[in-house]
Every structure is written in structure tokens, then in C-alpha cells.
Design a protein that fits this description.
This protein has 318 residues and is α/β, with parallel strands linked by helices. The protein folds into two domains: 226 residues, Spore Coat Polysaccharide Biosynthesis Protein SpsA, Chain A, CATH 3.90.550; 71 residues. Strands 7-5-6-4-1-2-3-8 form an eight-stranded mixed β-sheet, sandwiched between helices. Strand 2, helix 2 and strand 3 form a beta-alpha-beta unit. Helix 5 packs parallel to helix 8 and helix 9 runs antiparallel to helix 10. It comes from Polaribacter marinus.
Length: 318
Amino acid sequence: MDISVVIPLLNEEESLQELHDWIAKVMQSNRYLYEIIFIDDGSTDTSWSVIEKLSENNTEVKGIRFQKNYGKSQALDAGFELAKGNVVITMDADLQDNPDEIPELYNLIINENFDLISGWKKKRYDNVITKNIPSKLFNAAARKTSGLQLHDFNCGLKAYKNEVIKTVKVSGEMHRYIPVLAKNEGFNKIGEKIVQHQARKYGVTKFGMERFVNGFLDLITISFLSKFGKRPMHFFGLWGTLMFLFGTTSAFYIGAYKLYNVFKGIKTILVTDNPWFYIALTSMILGTILFLAGFIGELIIKSNNKEKHYTIKEKLNY
């Protein structure tokens, strides 16, 4: 199979038929073998009914329906697990991503051997105050932290080699950072393509300003995970050891100083009246806690927990 198109969605009943027809037209005109995987992330409208109708007598249309709303990352993870195409393309269901971009994205992966191509919505039709400016700040921080020189990390329109999406595991709210996750797994040929952004035709956006706050928090998380995700003891153990050594050294000094003064007959305060005693004690406790955190982190990694954090209610054409 040439292409799998993975489309996570939430309450997009009005756009699904038009989006399907547009994608099918592009695929058929280029004679691609393809599948369209719709992941209904707990919609409360008739989105699933539309998907069921599209899948009737149409084996190219696949559907996954979540028990409830789990989030875009979980929806993408479910779609990635089932995608069979040599090239996997993700796009949003709101018609703001243009399916006419698919052939060029496909060629960049197949003919130019890119591992991943990220879309760049250079000209946007979103609100400048609530989306464009925060997006620029977010992307600048992501570039600085990750080392990837992409202009639009959060663009839903991306293309991947199949092996990339089978290797990268997306959870939490990490869908914004799939290029970073891919880079951390050794997929280094990551490119960018300017894509057309279209104004929303139906409905309203499902994301508010809180996504940028969450985005920055996720950026801190992934920055840590990229360095210490597979070796937490190197971080927690190091700082725990340093703090414990500082605490024990300070406690030893306080005790030695007290004994020296007693031996010399010099009047001095009680050890428990010395503020440095409590600083030393706190450092020893925190050092022990940090060391244990690293040890527990290592145990969790070794357990290799692959539990899914979503429940699929039903599937179509699987």
C-alpha cells in the first residue's frame, strides 16, 4: 500500500464527507493505493455515523472509535498502530489542511528519502492575538530546545516513513513533538514543506489558549526525556549524590567544630541551635529522595510498560 492517511477528529460531522471526497479524488488521480483512517476521539455529534456511512462498500475507509475523548496524541497513536502504507500522512479533519499537498509530501518521502516532512503554515488564517503570536513564541522555544529548525511544530499536516510511526510512541500531549521524538530515535533526515493553510469552514476550534501552556510544559518534559528518559539515574542519582555529600560534609563539619570547642573549653551553641544543622539534614534527606527517584525510574523503564491509555469502542473495516 502506498499511503495511509491518519485523521484524528472530534465533532467534525460537517466536514468529513467533503474531506473524504477531496482525499479520494487526489488519490485516484495519482493512482495511489491508499487507506483513510478516521479516529473518532469521543465525538458527541454524528461524526461516527458519517464515518460508518463512508465505510459502506468502501474498504479504503477505516474507522476507530474511542470510548471517550482521550486526546489527539492517543488518537494518532491508535492510527499509527494500524497504518499499513509505506508513507503515512496525518492531517486534521477541519479542512484547514489541504489534501492537494499529498503527492508532493509522498514524493519527498519516497524519492528524496526523508524520514519525516513537517508542514509549515507560513500564511495562516487564524486569530493573530490568540493563535499566531503564541504559536510563534512556542515554535521559537521548541527550536531552541530541540535543535530542530522547524517553523511549525504543531502543524497537523505531516508525512512519515512507515518505520518512523512504528518506532515512535505518542502519548500524553506529545503529538506536537513527533519530529523531536523521531530525532531522539535516530531518524535524522527531517525536512519541512510550506503548505497551504485554509480558514476553518465548519464548526469551531477544539483548542484554546491552554494548549500553549500545555505545550510549553510538554516541551520541558520532552527536553528532559530526550536526555534522561532512558537513564533517569544519571540525572536524579547525580543530583541526589551531590546533595547527600553536601549534607554529610556539612554535618561532619558541624559535629567536628562542636567537639573541638568542647575539647578546648570554648563555650558554643548547641548543634540543634545551629541553622546549618538543618540545612545539612535537609540536604541529606533530599539527596536520598532524589537517588530513590532515579532508582525507581530505572525500575519502571526496565519493566517496559506498554499499557495503552485509551479504550477503543469499535472499529470499521478491520
